[in-house]
Amino acid sequence: MDITQQQVGLLQSFLNCIGRANAASISHLCINFPVADSIDGQSGTVRLRDDCLRSLKLLQDQCSNLSTLETLVHYKNSSFFRNSDNFVREALSQIDA
Fold it and tell me: Which of 23, 25, 67, 86 is most buried when burial is the number of CB atoms within 10 A of its CB?
């Protein structure tokens, strides 16, 4: 099921529910692939959507033992892969950061 729009809220609720100690023990998690957009009028400039950045920041801050982050691509965020190689490379670089 595509929960891309609600992911940050669901992830925050889940992490709050299990507590910091349990969140720090998570080693494998599956989330929706972050959505990247072109910045209008700035050719080749890419930014991750704010809610996706917040999801990644939550994982970075609270899941310190995370070694495998599996991502799902849904039709709403699959257009990302139809863009130029530079777009994809820049978006993946931001996700990695």
Answer: 23
